[in-house]
Amino acid sequence: MGPKKVDGVGVGLIGLGTVGTATVRILIEQADLLNRRLGAPLTLCRVADVDTTRERGLDLPPGLLSADVDGLLGDPDIDVVIELIGGLEPARTYVLQALQNGKHVVTANKALLAEHGAEIFAAAEEHGGDVAFEASVGGGIPLLRSFREGLAGDEVASFFGILNGTCNYILSRMTKEGADYEEVLAEAQSLGLAEADPTLDVYGLDTAHKLAILVGLAFGARVDLADIHVQGIEAVTPLDIKFAAEFGYRLKLLAIARRQGDAVQARVHPTLIPDHHLLADVSGAMNAVYVTGRYVGQLMFYGPGAGGGPTGTAVVADVIELARNRLAGAAGRVPPLAMPWSRLRATPIIPMDRVTTKHYFRFAAIDRPGVLSAVSGILGRHDISIEAVNQKGRQVRGAVPIVMLTHEAPEKNVDQALRMIDELEFIAAPTARLRVEDLDAERPD
Fold it and tell me: What is the CATH number assigned to the segment(s) 357-437?
């Protein structure tokens, strides 16, 4: 058994990895400050992890760390349970058990909330518990609290997010140095900025999990994660980054959400944005979200999106918030998604083939007369008008690049046109395609 709670609020933590270690360090080293801010003792009663022997650089009181999760979940001295093991199971089981036992929950687990949020938030409402998850999106940026409370009097029209530090680091390096994707990914792995298996990050799944959470907060919407269009950065080339820059654009992996009548757009994909926009300057492993509200106008949130210190800070901020609620007898004062779970609406996501955007195309064409007119003709027959074109004189892998920017066109039309163009005998490789968002024109309806 660890320390006993004295009067104030008792805390238990499950998962002593990078974020868990940072969280425990903050709770121990900042104990006096946290107690003064809370106005009562905040006691770390138990820590549970499958590995109780690994050196973590922490001076833990005797008996604090064990592998006994059940004991932690059932400990009457523990009021707030912090879940930091990640993944879907057993995290889901632990969170639901904590809520059923009358405890509040803090988690950084975006995948869990994106996949099982409906079950967890309904359980919190049923059992009178709070669920806080600031650290699940944007690391150390106080982003979710701003959506939930700071923008409670406004109506969010749209937001665009750089939500994955690994992808942003890779694209930043490719943009600055012209390096290949595989080369930069390997470097990111060696620096600890990318996982040994980077699939969740580079294929856009991590960003999609975060987008699903933000859509619920921003729009009061229940959405199905499976309906979010997701495309990663694995096919991005330095060549397209360079050509796009000549048109005045920079490439970012964006989480994009917009109100559209009674539905929403929610999509994740590499996106060209104007190189003078604030989001274009977000480099390295940093995160940022650009929000447009009906009354407030444009806001941008920026900061470290990952790492033990920043994420642990967000976890501890949630602990303090829930501890204050506990002491005031005000659990549920601010619902997790800004409104009671029962008030959220099942909201359809606009199918991708009905989304309208501008596009960047790079055609790999064999150099012969009539190529440009044939390509332009197919685009025209599909109601895709050309904004700018640049036909490069030099060959790339035996073909001459033809680079185009289009005006807005429906995805369905673009898909059909590119299928026809790629079947032409003088097109040497599948067309490279990137979507374009001119964020300067973003305004609330």
Answer: 3.30.70.260
